[in-house]
Amino acid sequence: MALSPVIGKLLHKRVVLASASPRRREILSQAGLRFEVVPSRFKETLDKASFPAPYAYAMETAKQKALEVAARMYQKDLRAPDVVIGADTIVTVGGLILEKPVDKQDAYRMLSMLNGKEHSVFTGVAIIHCCSKGGQLDTDVCQFHEETTVRFSRLSEELLWEYIDSGEPMDKAGGYGIQALGGMLVEYVHGDFLNVVGFPLNHFCKKLVELYYPPGRHDVRRVKHDSIPAVDTFEDLSDVEGGGSDPAGGIKGGPGGQAAVGTRGAEANGAVESPPPFPADLLGLIDGFKASKALFTACKLKVFDVLKDEAPLKAAEVAGRIDASVCGTGRLLDACVALGLLEKTDGGYRNTEVASRHLASDGEYSLHGLVTRHDDHTWELFTRLEVAVRQGPNAAAGGKVEDPAQSQQTTLQFMRAMHGLSKLTARRVATAFDLSRFTSACDLGGCTGALAHELAHEYPRMRVTVFDLPDVLEHVACFQPGGRPSERISFVPGDFFKDSLPEAELYVLSRILHDWPDDQVHALLGRLSGRCKPGGGVLVAEETVDEDPAAARSNLAAALSLLVRPRGRGRSGAEYRDLLEQHGFRDVQVAAVAGGALHLLLGTRASPP
Ligand SMILES: O=c1[nH]cc([C@@H]2O[C@H](COP(=O)(O)OP(=O)(O)OP(=O)(O)O)[C@@H](O)[C@H]2O)c(=O)[nH]1
């Protein structure tokens, strides 16, 4: 008996795991799946450079592994299995893809790259449904990927070699096994642990729900709140085992990315046609703005501050603290419970861990400033998305560029938003490449110095200058850890378009270039390139506009923000690379951090010809 009924949906099918990995076999059999193992003979030799992102490579490899097995089995006895599952796990660091080491020296090379740094582990998975049509194998491919970030402690050479000599690294992506001795190398893991081990079981089950989600009484249960749809997890199906799905049905994509087992249309005996699959994902999308607004309102009213360190509070007590109506507060608190931001116990409401960490207005990783900025500023911009679509980028704001220095309040709000975002990504940006060859850096438009602190912390020889407008630097004191900056960090006021740029070996442009049109980007890069000595570097961090449709969902928010903003424009990773090369930077290395949300490019200034 499988714990999850979606796994149960596969129990009557012939399922094949196209993998030699003992870890994948164990994860899936422990989940209650019954399957045969037929290792794939597909050679993992696809051209990595031809993929827009590492996860695309992993997904394609997973697909090819599974297709090879399906085709071979079909050829052998003209009967394909019902479902073939393939997977491929890779590690990415500093823009490179690491697979299994070929020998000890290769394992050492990989582990040295990971040493003391954060990296991403991607597993691509392909679930292939097969059938025979007209004497030919017919396949329906469903693919997905999962990313987990892992950070290694700083490890001595001796320890690395001891680990390599244990033999464990050799059949594992990136040269380590997190589930065994390799676990000792790991400082933290963000995301699905099993994804690192080789198979993202949670995401797999969710995909099965999409594929086998049966229309029926389940629909009624899902519309719990009239404003905020319940979060859709595979546990939701626990009481509908055996209900509704058609094991023989073909699988077709539905609206909102949802796939459903094909309904049979009118029954053969002329009975009433069954209704279409309930479009829960689509309705969730339609109502999505209400969820954002509930979160914004709770933040603005400081609900998460009130519930931060205290014992649970009743709605009436919270209402008293935030000076709001009891009825309205109760509704808002329940909405936050439905959104997973609060917990409700007999004693009342209290914050979840994520709300205390990110939504209370204080704390190192608070995103309260970002939420407030979205509520006060971005929300309104997005109401004019239609204008931006009809008239093109930058039209939505009607040419009105917000001047962050227009009032102290706006400047501070902008800085809080940027600080929250930067704190989340700064360590990842600082460690994505090895920057230890630079002894000085200048963060242009470095705002509160969040990234400067991480650079100084990560590279003990490095001095960092934060260069930003005087109105911004006036407020930096309240953002410094312990109230004052480190000795190796200095703040220099100036305008990077007009004033002389501070001297540095490495120039950093983090979330700057998207804000400017091409002529100004060229002007800035021209000044920077003129100031940078041969061998010096430029590090660019940007959200990019990706033309790959598979990536579109993940950077949808960034792409639309770039459309509605009053100036500047979205650019692809390739455009940023071109810009750097046009301004004399060579050997451009690329990396993606924070689940691909931020793209990084590191270029080296070539000697002038
Ligand atoms: O922490 C861990 N990280 C990775 C692993 C194992 O590494 C391999 C990854 O290689 P791949 O995806 O190519 O899979 P193979 O083992 O070659 O099997 P296929 O037949 O499916 O190609 C994978 O086995 C992970 O489990 C680990 O164990 N721990």
UniProtKB/TrEMBL annotation:
<keyword id="KW-0378">Hydrolase</keyword>
<dbReference type="Pfam" id="PF00891">
    <property type="entry name" value="Methyltransf_2"/>
</dbReference>
<dbReference type="InterPro" id="IPR029001">
    <property type="entry name" value="ITPase-like_fam"/>
</dbReference>
<dbReference type="InterPro" id="IPR001077">
    <property type="entry name" value="COMT_C"/>
</dbReference>
<feature type="domain" description="O-methyltransferase dimerisation">
    <location>
        <begin position="285"/>
        <end position="361"/>
    </location>
</feature>
<protein>
    <submittedName>
        <fullName>Acetylserotonin O-methyltransferase like</fullName>
    </submittedName>
</protein>
<dbReference type="InterPro" id="IPR036388">
    <property type="entry name" value="WH-like_DNA-bd_sf"/>
</dbReference>
<dbReference type="InterPro" id="IPR029063">
    <property type="entry name" value="SAM-dependent_MTases_sf"/>
</dbReference>
<dbReference type="GO" id="GO:0032259">
    <property type="term" value="P:methylation"/>
</dbReference>
<dbReference type="Pfam" id="PF08100">
    <property type="entry name" value="Dimerisation"/>
</dbReference>
<dbReference type="InterPro" id="IPR016461">
    <property type="entry name" value="COMT-like"/>
</dbReference>
<keyword id="KW-0808">Transferase</keyword>
<dbReference type="Pfam" id="PF02545">
    <property type="entry name" value="Maf"/>
</dbReference>
<comment type="subunit">
    <text>Homodimer.</text>
</comment>
<dbReference type="InterPro" id="IPR036390">
    <property type="entry name" value="WH_DNA-bd_sf"/>
</dbReference>
<feature type="domain" description="O-methyltransferase C-terminal">
    <location>
        <begin position="402"/>
        <end position="586"/>
    </location>
</feature>
<feature type="region of interest" description="Disordered">
    <location>
        <begin position="239"/>
        <end position="273"/>
    </location>
</feature>
<dbReference type="GO" id="GO:0046983">
    <property type="term" value="F:protein dimerization activity"/>
</dbReference>
<dbReference type="InterPro" id="IPR003697">
    <property type="entry name" value="Maf-like"/>
</dbReference>
<keyword id="KW-0007">Acetylation</keyword>
<keyword id="KW-0489">Methyltransferase</keyword>
<dbReference type="GO" id="GO:0047429">
    <property type="term" value="F:nucleoside triphosphate diphosphatase activity"/>
</dbReference>
<keyword id="KW-0949">S-adenosyl-L-methionine</keyword>
<dbReference type="GO" id="GO:0008171">
    <property type="term" value="F:O-methyltransferase activity"/>
</dbReference>
<feature type="compositionally biased region" description="Gly residues">
    <location>
        <begin position="241"/>
        <end position="259"/>
    </location>
</feature>
<dbReference type="InterPro" id="IPR012967">
    <property type="entry name" value="COMT_dimerisation"/>
</dbReference>
